[in-house]
Amino acid sequence: MDNFKFKTIKSVFSSAGIISKIMFIIAILLLIFGLAWFVAVSLFTLKFLLYNLIEQGNIWIFISRSNVQYTNPIGFPNTYCNHVAYLTGFWSIIVKYIFGWIAICRLNCSVCSDIREILNNPDMV
Fold first, then answer.
1. Which residue in 15, 74, 100, 124 has the fewest CB atoms around it within 10 Å?
2. What is the residue range of 56's domain?
């Protein structure tokens, strides 16, 4: 074990032939590409799953509004939901959509006012 020396990449790379160097570079590039592909696919999958989970929750909350009951969890477990939990979910979704539309309208108004200002003052361009 004492006579065993770890070779650095530089020493291995300098003594290797041109084919080995090209193969090493290709292997590193493929490794980087594979890692980037894995990260991209993982993030897309996570985003897709979270989006679907949120949308399915929205659909479930709004469709079950007329069927949900708050009093008998033992007799009707399929339609029972805690009153505070259900109404918190219901109203938080509504508030989220209201604030989302307000933000979109606000952004639209600021973009339109910027465009209007540029069209009225040609010296700004």
1. 74
2. 9-124
